[in-house]
Amino acid sequence: MNARRDSTDxxxxxxxxxxxxxxxxxxDGVGKDWLDLDEAGPEDLKLRDDATDDIATEPAEEPDRRxxxxxxxxxxxxxxxxxxxxxxxxxxxxLFVLGxxxxxxxxxxxxxxxxxxxxxxxxxxxGVGWLILRMRNTPPPDSGWDDGAQV
Length: 151
What we know:
The protein has 151 residues and is an all-alpha fold.
């Protein structure tokens, strides 16, 4: 019942196939000039430039990365200021806050929790609904004819 037993999707012995691929690459000369760090001695680790110092004893001088990082660092522009809230937005936020207060502490208004909870849910839903209905789906008036990428 095992479908993998009779499968001919791949080779039977992956290790043999890998060894054949590596042998073919070595015949073609791939990897001959790579340095094997396990077998390399200190004389192999010399700089290939005109310098004769050993890498292990004398580190190469690096350019000052701080200057380069400062030049390449992206500084975003200042964000635009928040728009002024209109009266209807403030009223919707007030309904939302009133709903939370009625839900948490209905006794502030002299209500029983069995009366305050449904009123708070109505106030919360009305505030959130009012905010959602006021959302604009049009471009700002000063955007011009080209709105750029719209998602």
